[in-house]
């Protein structure tokens, strides 16, 4: 042991910082910087630190479920900030809206993984050596082992050892004879191997996820029935790519949404009435330019696999077909407009922006009711079922400046009314009108007409490309196998020793040792001895008076009879 | 696809019958625990098995060539025949049969696995707890645990009927997957094992305290029934074995859930409240297992960690389903 080693152990042993006063310096020399580093490394890689970091990790993960997270639902974060004007900014400062990407959360798991490396690497080296080494020599006094027994037999040493070897092999022990009168055996090295595999797999899992965040991409897009979509950046409504992803990396496939069917519960009562039962989209997919189109189906649990990426059906809604004519009778907007569903009965809202309308720009805000009915309490028209059984469109119109010319990106689902004037009816209130399919409404003040041509549906798609996910799965499964092996395989060592004595009698000793707490070790040692020495004799008696009592069979479930023979208070 | 109303009704009636049977079993278990149960023949106070296992053969006083068998049976008087607890176990079997019948009828009434909402999760989850307990009885004598298993099961069924009840119906599209069967069934078994483990851990902590008091020369005044139970050490080891089985199963639940999430939502991990809490539970039980291997943290401290982990599990079961909205919002309550 080097001087350095001797010194660095001290603070660790005492669990306190070394004092620097002159007196103690004599007894306890100062740590060199390297010594300190080593000491800190030992602290970090100790089991206790790992345990505390684990508990911290569990604790630190909790706030993410209580506070809305930007990566999951940005709109909820905005609502939270509005509702809590005092608390909100503090939560933001502490990265409370991005817990799982925050420095403090990362610090915990990175420290944990560093601690894990520091613990696992030396253990892997040790395990490698253990796997290559022979089972160790028998201790000189087997009776010092936690489980041990001796017996006597008339069989020869060689016979006993051969039988013992066979019994050990059958229980899948590694057996080695270091000399002529002992047998060394061990088993369960898989336990430690499994433990190491578990920890290394967790490391692999984290590394793969990190690589994945560099080379994967994902994006969302809304596609109306009948439309064609191709995998190019402009087609995405939102797109998130890893740092290594460029626009050239998008696989050149395309598809047309041929149809989309939704099925809702019409038979149940209570809160299950109207619940969604099935969504199915039919796609015509062109895998790469020039390929023949193929029919494919997309469902909620059944994504489309195309050219290395996956397309998921994550949402759907109605896209009313609306035609807008301006005051001069020209068509200024026409086609299906995706509306956002706001409740379980698909009451949806949407906007139409007619920038070319004359005399002024025209903006429409509309509420779509797939199955409109009059609420008996309020008299208002509401949607009572998610299917389009009685589609109605409630219209509100605005004129003025749509705010599209200032170069700032605007959501297609929101009408910025700050520079718009609501069109009023003859009663002076805001004009509104509810129309059915095929009906038109003339906007007051000669501002034009709106026609509700029909209803179609759209799907919200999530496109994902992540080539690393399969490796994440492999590492996760390896971790599962590893932890199972480490928890269920018992690591044991067993030694036999034979000592020939007078009168042709051989004394047989057995000792057992377990690395972990092992309540069945005694049972194992007992059955091994029984198997190795089937004919036992009492050394006090002559050989011919061997008791004829058959040994209890090992592994039985009912141990009552054996216990009955036991003198009370002894033997266990 | 419709709903078979008759079967749904039958299922509800079977739940009520099962609850009645559970109530009887619970009372019988409690009587046995209190020491007032009928015992056929007076027995000897049992010694603990598995501790200080020194085998001696042909040693002084042992005589003969028979090796004493050791047993892992967690603490019961070997030569005592407790009639009350035998009745309790029998009635629990009857209750289990009724309970299974109810779950099966519920499933048949809608032609799918009955794991679509909180009510169905509760009745299915509790049936697994009872089943796992009765199966565990074959391997180790855990009859003293009956009160602490049947009590929670009965409570869960009561909550299910009174608070979470939802009429039988078909599944929403997100749940229509074979992974539902894989993911949820394994989660049930793992949770059931965690429940049994927790009951043992609580008893262990009580026993540990009693032992500490007794060692300090102040024998505890209350809870005399605890004397019939195994020592804190045996309870600790038995609960560890349950947790050791449950932990890989919980790991599998997470993996299966991630595979399903990837298929359904496009991401294998979404930090959805249910996922967060499942992760917290996993880390908490990992801490427990880790603590048991750390010097100074085994025994009582590890037991506290197991309790914390269990509260996380319960919060994930009840709290997250009711208070949080997320991708796992299938509970059909509120």
TrEMBL record, chain A:
Residues 47-525 form the ResB-like domain. Residues 1-22, 536-572 are annotated as: Disordered. Residues 560-572 have a biased composition (Basic and acidic residues). Keywords: Cytochrome c-type biogenesis, Membrane, Transmembrane, Transmembrane helix. The chain crosses the membrane at residues 50-67, 104-122, 196-217, 470-489. It is found in: Membrane. This is Cytochrome c biogenesis protein ResB. It comes from Kineosporia mesophila.
From TrEMBL, chain B:
The keyword Ribosomal protein does not apply. It holds the Pfam family Cytochrom_C_asm. InterPro entries: Cyt_c_assembly (IPR002541), Cyt_c_biogenesis_CcsA (IPR017562), Cyt_c_biogenesis_CcsA/CcmC (IPR045062). Residues 115-328 form the Cytochrome c assembly protein domain. It is a multi-pass membrane protein. The chain crosses the membrane at residues 14-31, 85-109, 121-138, 145-166, 178-203, 242-261, 276-291, 303-324. Keywords: Cytochrome c-type biogenesis, Membrane, Transmembrane, Transmembrane helix. It is found in: Membrane. PANTHER family: CYTOCHROME B_B6 PROTEIN-RELATED, HEME EXPORTER PROTEIN C. This is C-type cytochrome biogenesis protein CcsB. It comes from Kineosporia mesophila.
